Amino acid sequence: MGLLDSIVGAVSGQLQGQGGGADLIGSLLRQVGGGQGLAGLVEQLSRGGLGEIVQSWVGTGANLPISAQQIEQGLGGDLIGQLAQQFGLNPAQLSQQLAQQLPQVVDGLTPQGQLPTGGIDDLLGQLSGLLQR
Fold this sequence. Notes:
Blueprint: H1 2-17, H2 24-31, H3 37-58, H4 68-75, H5 77-87, H6 91-109, H7 120-131
Helix pairs in contact: 1-6, 3-4, 3-6, 4-6, 5-6
InterPro entries: YidB, YidB-like
Pfam families: YidB (PF20159)
């Protein structure tokens, strides 16, 4: 879990530095895809036309980049607005943070190229434990 620890720690530190708090990823995972966690997030972004990009993060090859505009396209402006308000960011800042961090987080949570089989509670518990270290 060393790689995952470092990825989640870096995400946490960067989000805290931006005023977003370490709970941003957890909040996002709770709100997308009917509470299906990472699988729900991947499905939501894929339905938003970003399937190739998201699959590059899940797979074992190089991660394709994603823009803030693509994040908003994939997740929807309403969700971005809600999360931005919740974390004290403007929507553009939040989208930019997610664009920078989601490829690393998804890649780190799928080291074998497969989505975790646990539910949202398992995933959030894992993220929470790692973020508190």
